[in-house]
């Protein structure tokens, strides 16, 4: 009886329902299928990761691709579209390396310029982001060029006196001089918006020679100028913004009577004869000559220098994008 019950145990009851395992042997087909599936998944994963991170082969390393810079991101501003096309043309000729900050500035230019809103710093033409900003820069930031100009002070002053006139109101402006929009202010350009004024340079050979010795003179794009600036007593120039924060204006004091003042970003300063003052004129700035008529005009020599934190490749690209006549 116990043997019969053992036959009718759990195994005995389920044995008709289970396959016969005595003859079962593992087969390779399922293992191969699983490994093949895993291999396909791995290939697909590598493809997705590679296509999501790598730039197309036609782009050089560091180039912002069309996906990163869609045209709609530039908005409908025709000027910004033109700037982007110029940057793209430059990169095709040379390289996209080091252009990330320029690309960002062009893409977001409307945001940086702030429209009609008042701001302490608002370049009127082009703002390069992530540059250290201050209304005034220390002399050490442009030590070489500052020393060249200050050593040339006697020659520059002498050549100014050779081209000066009485600047009387209503008098005809002599050849080479420019009457500014504000009465009481005149300029004599050696370089104007990146172009050499040859006749004026020939009239001031020592000043021209000093300019040629400068390392950071902006002389190849529309933001670069070098000129004598004359401000008559009683003249006040209203607040304005310079065109860009990529330059630093160097003011060499030639004749500075009492009562002259420069206010940049809310900080007042004054020139000193024979010394340079470095100014970021993309900040709101005003100029005034509050002296008496007997004091004579205030005279400075202005030179536009590169901002010390604009890198070499960025300077070359800016010269290309903002070349005179472009």
From TrEMBL:
Keywords tagged on the record: Dioxygenase, Oxidoreductase
One term under GO cellular component: membrane
Ranges of residues in domain Aspartyl/asparaginy/proline hydroxylase: 186-308
Tree of life domain: Eukaryota
Database matches in Pfam families: Asp_Arg_Hydrox
Gene3D superfamilies: B-lactam Antibiotic, Isopenicillin N Synthase, Chain
Residue stretches in coiled coil: none
Keyword check for Oxidoreductase: yes
InterPro entries the UniProt entry points to: Asp/Arg/Pro-Hydrxlase (IPR007803), Asp/Asn_beta-hydroxylase (IPR051821), IPNS-like_sf (IPR027443)
Record carries keyword Cell wall biogenesis/degradation: no
GO molecular function, one term: dioxygenase activity
Matching PANTHER family: ASPARTATE BETA-HYDROXYLASE DOMAIN CONTAINING 2, ASPARTATE BETA-HYDROXYLASE DOMAIN-CONTAINING PROTEIN 2
Annotated family: Belongs to the aspartyl/asparaginyl beta-hydroxylase family.
The protein's name: Beta-hydroxylase domain-containing 1
